[in-house]
Prior knowledge:
Blueprint: H1 9-12, E1 15-18, E2 25-26, E3 29-30, H2 34-43, E4 47-52, H3 59-68, E5 78-80, H4 81-93, E6 101-103, H5 111-122, E7 127-129, E8 135-138, E9 141-144, H6 146-157, E10 162-163, H7 170-179, E11 184-188, H8 191-200, E12 204-208, H9 215-219, E13 229-231, E14 245-247, E15 250-253, E16 256-261, E17 264-269, H10 273-291
Helix pairs in contact: 4-7, 5-6
Amino acid sequence: MLGAEDQPLVEAYDVAMFDLDGVVYVGDHAVSGAPGHLARAREAGTTLAFITNNASRPPAVVAEKLSRLGVPATAQDVVTSAQAAARLLVERHGSGATVAVVSGYGPDVPWRDIMRAAVLVREGLPWVASHTDHTLPTPDGVAPGHGVLVEMVSRFAGVEPVVAGKPQRPLLDETVRRVGGERPLMVGDRLDTDIEGGRSAGIDTLLVLTGVTGLEELADASPHERPTYLAPDLGGLFTPHGSPANGDGGWSLGGWVAAVDAGALTVSGSGGAADWWRVVAAAAWDHRDRQGAPPDTTGLVPPATDVDG
C-alpha cells in the first residue's frame, strides 16, 4: 500500500529524479505548473536530475529543451539510457572493447544494420539494449518504439538483451552515481517504467497523474508497479503524505472513504484531490489482490485539481 511521510518530500529526500514526458513536459509544452514546482524544489535544496529512456538525444539537447520550456538545466543534470548502456559495457567488457552490440531508438537506422546486428547477436555477440519501451509519441500519433525492435531481434536470435533503461535499474543507478545524494526519490507518470524501475532499484517513488496514468491504469496496478507516494502533480513534492487506513466502511484518508461494493469502486465524503486518489488506489489495490482483478471504475469522476497549487 501507499507509504506515509510526515515531512514534505523535498525535505525527506535530497535528490529527485524526474522522468520527462508526462512529468516535466508533454511534447513541446511544459506540464502546467511544472517549471514553478521544479524551481521551488531547487530553492528548497533538492538536487534535480532528469532521466530518460530515449537514447537518441544527447544530454545537452535534452537540457536545451528543458531550459527553453522554463526549466533551467545543463547536460550534467540529464542522464539517458545511452549513458547507462555505456556504463554497462565498460563494467562488463572494459574500456575500448569492441565485442558487443548496442541497440537504441533511431528513426533513420537502415534495415541492413538491423539485420547485421541480429545475425551478430544470434552468433553470440553480447547485446545491450538501451530500453524496451514499446511505444513513443510522434506528431502522427503513438508509434512503435525500440521495444518492438528488441522483441523482433530477440525472437530471431533466441537471445534476451541486457537492458539499461527503466524499468531495469542501471539507468537509476547511473543517475545516483552521477548526481550523488543519500536518499533519492524517483518521480514519474508511468507505472511500468518509472515506478517499477524505482522499485527495482530500491528507490522510493512518487507517481504524478499529469501523464499516461489515469484512474483505470492506477486501479489495475500490479504490486511491483505501485508507487510509494501518489499526487495529482508535482505539487505533491511540497506536502506530507498520508497513508489510507482500512476500516469497516472502507479505506479512509483526509475526509474521503473508498470501498468496493458488488465489484464497483465507490467514493464518499469530501476533501483534497490528492487524498481522493490515495483512497481510490488503496481500495482498488486491496480488491485486486483479493479478487485477482481490479474493481469497476465506470462513472467514478475524480475531483478537480489545481495543477498550479
